[in-house]
Amino acid sequence: MIGGAVLLLVIFVAYGLFAKNKKDPAIPISDNNARQMQMLAYERLTILVDRIALPNLISRVSLAGVSAQEMQALLTQNIKEEFSHNITQQLYVSADAWSAVKNLKEQNLLIINQYAKTLPSQATGLDLNKNLLEYCMQNKKGALHEVVNEVLNFELKKSLLG
Q: What pTM does this model have?
């Protein structure tokens, strides 16, 4: 068993040395192409931030006649899907930009889940949405999407100038 692990380690090291000395067959990306890909990533993340902003999410996902628990599931599922759909954009943006987007996602999921827990079992989706929108109007964290958009703008400008 140990001999197999050592052999595997030797193979990995040998492959690493071989691959390091071999020319990379990948197509080189020009600075112009890289910047364009980066700009597109920031653009997509800006759209993501807009789509998962609580007021926008609620207006887009809201359904009449559903329970608060069903609405909670719809809202959280939508956020997770939107985020998952854009997860590769982290390859093209700064760590700060990606962290801000990730924090927005986590914050919104936390807010939705916390407010859903406070409602009685017979509460409707409308009740949950109303509480979430009131939170957004009364609390600065409710407008976190605006702060994240500012971070994305700043990081894009910084990368274009740098």
A: 0.79
